[in-house]
Design a protein that fits this description.
The structure is a single chain. The protein is of the alpha+beta class. A 16-stranded antiparallel sheet has the order 18-19-20-21-22-23-24-25-26-27-28-29-30-31-32-33, with no helix packed on it. A four-stranded mixed sheet has the order 1-6-7-5. The longest helix is centred in the N-terminal third of the chain and has 26 residues, at 8-33.
Length: 767
C-alpha cells in the first residue's frame, strides 16, 4: 500500500462521500428485503445487533451510543440517529449498517472503519519558533486518534499563539499522511508570514474624553522604542476585545450609560508589516444618579446596607463605583454565611431628565455552613500543614472574609507556586465545600549575596534554606558569610507547630569572627525560642540566648571604648517580642503593615548587663497601576546597667542595604577622633520607597527610595544635623531562586573619606 498525503479539507470531502454511500446502502437494503420505509406497522423486529471492525474503542462504549435494541421494531430513523451519534465520538472514518434476515426478523450489523492513530507529529515551515516550543502550545499528541475536530482545534491554538507574538497573517494547514497499520503521520504546515506590529491606533467619535485618557486604559499599545522589553505593539484579538470592554467601562464610569464602541477597523500597510487600527465611539448622553433604593433585604436593615453604598444622588453615574457597592453588600452577606446572596441593580433611566434611578434588589438565600475541605496538588506537603492555615473548619458558618484570609495564610507559607481556594456550593444541603488546589514549588533555596564596604571590602554571603523540611513545614537554615575580614556560620531550625500545637519552637547555633581595624572579635553562641499567635494578626515570641564573645588583638592606639572590651565575656539574655502583621503577601506586599517591638535583657548570669529595645514599623499603601508606596520607621535604644557599659558589639551600626543604602557599614553613626566607627546607643531610621512593576509576567519590579536616619550616642546626639540622607533606585525580582535585590544608593551629603555612591545586591530576602 503506498503512502498518501491528504489535507484536512480533502479528508472532510471523503467523509461526506461515506455518508452518501451509507445512505444509499441503507435504502438498497430496504429495497432488497422489501421493507416499506414508511410503514411502522410492517417493520420487522430486530433480533440481534452485532458490532464489527472496532479495535481501538470497546464494543461496550459503542453499544452505549446505539439506541436500537433487540426485540424492538426496526426504525430507519433510529438507525440514522445511531450513526450520527457514533460519528460524534470522533473515532470513525466510516460507519455502515448491514441488514440481514434472521429467525423471522432481522440482524443489524454495525461495521466500523476506525480513524488512524497518529504515530508521529511534526511541524514544517516554522522558523521563528522551534518545534518543541510549538508542541507545548497544542493538546494533540502522538498516540491520539486523527480526529478532525481535535486537529482543527489545535490548528487554531497554533494560529492564536503566532498572532499573540505578532504574526497576524500566519496560515496553518494540517497534512495527514496515511501509512499502513491504521496509522497516520500528522504535519502542521506553517506559513508564518511577516511579523506585524501596530503602527498607529486612531480613536474616532470621542468628544468628552481625550484620546490620551482612552488609550491609557488599553493594554494594546502602539509600537515604540522599548517594545522589545515590554512586549507592546502586538495585535492580539483577545486583548483588543478586552480593551473595547475597558473603553466602555471608562465611559460608563463617566456617566455615558449608552456608549457604543465599535470593533476595530484594521488596515495593513502595503508591505503587510504594520497595522493601523481605528476604533469608533458613539458616546451618547451623560447621566446622573437619581433615587437610590433597596428592596428584598431582611437580614440587614436599610441603614446597615446604605452604609455600604458610596454612590449618591446627584453625582455622575459610575458603573465601576456601582459594581464596588454591589460587591460590598454581597461581602456583608457572605461574611454572615449567606454564600448565595445576590444583588441585582435595577436601573430605571429617565432619558428626558438624563438621570438613572437605581434599586438594589437583594436575594438573600440561606445560611451556608462549611462542608468538606478538600486539598489536592500537594505531593510533598502534608495535608495538615495546609489545613492548619484554614480559618474555617467543617461545620463553621461560611465567611468570605475568612476564606480570603485562609488563602493569604496558605500563600504566605511560600511552599506553593499557585494556590486556588474555590468554594463549591451544595445548594440543597446548604453546605459549601472548599476545594483547595495547590501547585508545589521547590522549597529548597540557595541564596547568594554580595557587596563592598570599607570595612569588609568584598563580601560574599551564602544561605542554604529548606522552608518545608520533610513536608512538615519545618524551616532549616544554614548560613555562611565570608569576606577578607569576616567569617560567620549559622545553623537554625524552626518548627511552626511544635508537637502539633499552635506554638512555634526554634533553636540555633552560630560562630562568628570579625577582624576590625583595631581589634578582632570572635563570638560563639546558641539560642532557643518559642512563639505563639495571640490573635489572627498578632503574635509574640520569647528567646533565650547564651553567647561568649572574645575581643583580641586590640591595637595599641585604640580608644578606651575598645580597650575596655578586651578579653572574653559571656552574655546570657532573654528577648521577648510582640508583633502585628497584616500584610497581604510577605514576599511582595501591596497593602497592610508589620509592626513589632523587640526587647533584649542581658544579665541572667554572665558578664554583660544591658537592655536593648527596637520598635520597627513598615506600611504598604497601594497607589495606582499596581504601584505601591512603602514607609518604614525604626527606633532603637540600648544601655548598660548594674555598673556595666553597653558592649561594643551590641551597639547600633548604620549603613548598608538593610539600614541606610549608599553608606558603608557604620558610616551612619558615631566616628571618634581616631576614625573608628564605634556605633551608637540609639538609632532612628526612615525608609521611603515607591515600588512599580516593570515586567509583570516574571514579577520584576523597580524601586525608587529615600533613606534618612543614623545612630547616636552622648557625643553624637540625635539631631537634624547628624541625620544622614541617601536616595537611589534599584530592581527587585521574585525569581525562581528567591527574591533578588540590586540597589544603587547615592550619598546626598558625603562626608570626608566617604564614597558618593554604593552598589549592593542580595538574593534571598527583602527587608
Amino acid at each position: 500500500m503506498s503512502d498518501t498525503i491528504m489535507p484536512l479539507n480533502q479528508s472532510m470531502r471523503l467523509r461526506n462521500k461515506f455518508y452518501i454511500f451509507t445512505a444509499m446502502f441503507f435504502y438498497m437494503s430496504l429495497f432488497l428485503l422489501n421493507i416499506p420505509a414508511n410503514s411502522a406497522e410492517a417493520a420487522p423486529l430486530i433480533k440481534v445487533i452485532e458490532i464489527e471492525g472496532n479495535r481501538k474503542i470497546s464494543s461496550s462504549v459503542i453499544s452505549s451510543k446505539i439506541k436500537s435494541e433487540a426485540g424492538l421494531p426496526f426504525s430507519k430513523n433510529s438507525v440514522q440517529d445511531d450513526i450520527k451519534r457514533l460519528y460524534r465520538i470522533g473515532y470513525f472514518d466510516d460507519i455502515r449498517v448491514e441488514i440481514e434476515p434472521f429467525e423471522g426478523g432481522i440482524k443489524l450489523v454495525y461495521i466500523f472503519m476506525e480513524k488512524p492513530t497518529i504515530v508521529s507529529l511534526d511541524f514544517q515551515g516554522n522558523k521563528e519558533f522551534e518545534t518543541k516550543d510549538l508542541k507545548e502550545k497544542i493538546t494533540i499528541t502522538s498516540g491520539a486518534i486523527a480526529n478532525l475536530s481535535l486537529i482543527t482545534d489545535n490548528v487554531q491554538k497554533i494560529i492564536s499563539f503566532y498572532q499573540s507574538e505578532g504574526y497576524w497573517l500566519v496560515r496553518v494547514v494540517p497534512i495527514i499522511r496515511e501509512i499502513p497499520e491504521d496509522a497516520a503521520a500528522l504535519t502542521f504546515q506553517v506559513e508564518e508570514g511577516p511579523k506585524v506590529t501596530i503602527k498607529k491606533i486612531t480613536i474616532e467619535g470621542n468628544k468628552s474624553l481625550s484620546v490620551k485618557e482612552i488609550k491609557k486604559v488599553m493594554k494594546t499599545k502602539e509600537r515604540w522604542l522599548f517594545s522589545f522589553l515590554t512586549g507592546s505593539g502586538i495585535y492580539r484579538k483577545e486583548q483588543i476585545r478586552q480593551d473595547l470592554a475597558r473603553i466602555r467601562e471608562l465611559y460608563q464610569s463617566k456617566g455615558y450609560i449608552y456608549v457604543a464602541v465599535s470593533e476595530p477597523k484594521i488596515r495593513l500597510s502595503p508591505d503587510k508589516k504594520k497595522i493601523f487600527l481605528t476604533i469608533s465611539i458613539s458616546e451618547g448622553d451623560q447621566y446622573k444618579i437619581g433615587d437610590i433604593r433597596i428592596k428584598g433585604n431582611k437580614v440587614f436593615s436599610d441603614p446597615e446596607l446604605y452604609n455600604q453604598i458610596e454612590i449618591t444622588t446627584g453625582r455622575i453615574f459610575n458603573r465601576s463605583a456601582l459594581r464596588k457597592d454591589i460587591d460590598k453588600i454581597i461581602d456583608l452577606y457572605m461574611d454572615r454565611g449567606y454564600a448565595r446572596a445576590d444583588v441585582n441593580p435595577l436601573i430605571d433611566v429617565n432619558t428626558k431628565e438624563k438621570i438613572a434611578n437605581i434599586t438594589f434588589s437583594i436575594t438573600e438565600g440561606g445560611v451556608f455552613r462549611i462542608g468538606r475541605i478538600n486539598i489536592t496538588g500537594n505531593i510533598k506537603t502534608r495535608d495538615k500543614v495546609v489545613r492548619r492555615e484554614m480559618r474555617l473548619d467543617e461545620g463553621n458558618i461560611f465567611s468570605k472574609k475568612l476564606i480570603k484570609r485562609s488563602y493569604q495564610r496558605i500563600n504566605n507559607l511560600n511552599f506553593f507556586e499557585s494556590v486556588d481556594v474555590n468554594p463549591i456550593p451544595r445548594v440543597e444541603e446548604q453546605l459549601m465545600d472548599i476545594n483547595i488546589r495547590v501547585k508545589e514549588k521547590l522549597t529548597g533555596m540557595l541564596s547568594i549575596g554580595g557587596g563592598y564596604s570599607s570595612v569588609d571590602k568584598v563580601m560574599v554571603m551564602g544561605e542554604l534554606t529548606q522552608t518545608n523540611l520533610f513536608g512538615r513545614g519545618l524551616y532549616l537554615k544554614l548560613k555562611a558569610d565570608f569576606s577578607s575580614r569576616r567569617t560567620n556560620y549559622n545553623i537554625s531550625l524552626r518548627d511552626p507547630w511544635f508537637m502539633n500545637k499552635p506554638v512555634s519552637a526554634s533553636i540555633g547555633i552560630y560562630n562568628e569572627q570579625f577582624d576590625y581595624t583595631d581589634y578582632d572579635k570572635k563570638a560563639t553562641g546558641g539560642y532557643i525560642g518559642f512563639g505563639k499567635e495571640l490573635s489572627e494578626y498578632v503574635g509574640g515570641n520569647i528567646r533565650y540566648r547564651i553567647e561568649e564573645v572574645e575581643i583580641t588583638d586590640v591595637s595599641e592606639d585604640a580608644s578606651s571604648l575598645i580597650r575596655d572590651q578586651e578579653g572574653s565575656k559571656l552574655t546570657s539574655s532573654i528577648s521577648p517580642s510582640v508583633w502585628k502583621d497584616t500584610r497581604d503577601n510577605y514576599l511582595d506586599p501591596a497593602t497592610g503593615s508589620r509592626n513589632a517591638l523587640y526587647i533584649t535583657l542581658a544579665g541572667l548570669g554572665g558578664d554583660n548587663y544591658f537592655v536593648k529595645g527596637v520598635v520597627d514599623s513598615i506600611w504598604y499603601f497601594p497607589v495606582i497601576w499596581k504601584t505601591t508606596f512603602s514607609l518604614r520607621g525604626r527606633y532603637g535604644y540600648a544601655a548598660g546597667y548594674n555598673g556595666k557599659e553597653l558592649p561594643l558589639y551590641e551597639r547600633f551600626y548604620i549603613g548598608g542595604i538593610n539600614t541606610i543604602r549608599g553608606l558603608d557599614f557604620g558610616e551612619g553613626g558615631p566616628i571618634n577622633e581616631k576614625g573608628e566607627k564605634t556605633g551608637g546607643t540609639e538609632e532612628l531610621i526612615f525608609n521611603a520607597e515607591y515600588i512599580f512593576p516593570m515586567i509583570d509576567d516574571i514579577k520584576l519590579k523597580g524601586v525608587l527610595f529615600f533613606d534618612y536616619g543614623g545612630a547616636f550616642d552622648k557625643d553624637h546626639t540625635l539631631s537634624y544635623g547628624n541625620m544622614r540622607r541617601t536616595a537611589g533606585a534599584g530592581v527587585r525580582w521574585l525569581s525562581p531562586f528567591g527574591p533578588i535585590r540590586l540597589e544603587w544608593g547615592f550619598n546626598i551629603y558625603p562626608r570626608e573619606g566617604e564614597n558618593n555612591d554604593k552598589f549592593e545586591f542580595s538574593l534571598g530576602g527583602f527587608f
